[in-house]
TrEMBL record:
InterPro entries: Nitroreductase-like. This is Tat pathway signal protein. It comes from the Bacteria. It comes from Bradyrhizobium diversitatis.
Amino acid sequence: MGLSAAAITSPSAAAAANTYDETVKSSRAPLQAVPRDRELVRFATLAANSHNTQPWIFSVRSNVIAIAPDFKRRCPAVDPDDHHLFVSLGCAAENLILAASTLGWHADAAVDGNRIVITLEEAPQSTSALAAAIPIRQCTRAAFDGRPAAPETLRRLEEACRESNVAAILMTERTAIAGVTDYVLEGNSAQMRDKAFMRELVSWIRFNEAEALATMDGLFSPASGNPSLPSWVARPLLKLFFTESGENKKYREELDSSAGVVVLAADRSDKSHWIAVGRACQRFGLQATALGLKYSFINQPVEVAALRQQFGASLGLGERHPDIVMRFGTGPDLPKSLRRPPELVIQS
């Protein structure tokens, strides 16, 4: 699918005629059969990704869609080895593969260097609860209600994580969750004392709808349960309200209210294995959504280098490094984050 230069507009121009809610509704509209490639990319971009940087570039030729990293959108402070970036690409690939099946295409994915190359072949249409959950899924950074998950729910969540060369550890015992909490708080404290981390994080925060609509990316404050404020008010106040003790209290409450925690770890630390983690990670989020659950990332123990190996050892992972940490439970709906339209992420 080629795109003319006239078809490529800025994010702010693309959203200028729409409110925030209208833009969310448009990006998360039901999947259509045509135009096939644009629709598949649109659904791929609804995947989870680090800081909502959307670090991907798509290219399309005939029945092949490739997903490549957009290194201009990497986060070197929080993700110096780029493992979150390649996990994000794996998440996008999983969405695309699931969406393709509902349109009557079998998608075969292969890792080629930095890229994921997805080849489409005609096949019978195949609907699934996971594919149906793609436009609904979101990361919910809020306290949950503390209810435990039923054994069948846990079985289906574990099943969703199954991926070659990826280990999944699911914890529901309060003592195990408390152990994860200790690492999350220690990691959060280290990050909030790290000036480079804080500069990078704040650069991706969108304090209000106008800021979010101008870029169509980033961490929208209300999507994290925070108020929408003019940036000239929010930025000076950030140091007063966004504190180490306050954030640690919030994370403790969020984990205490969660039904469980899941940790994903690849057998090896390389791009193809991180992409595999991403596919498992996205299926977990979609399965949780399909079951009526919420989830969010608590990746501090894997983002602070001094803690990552120690955290993995506490989980019995041996030489493997934990890559992704998520909590899950029953919780509220929050505003959904924005995604850039396909025209801005497809390379002609």
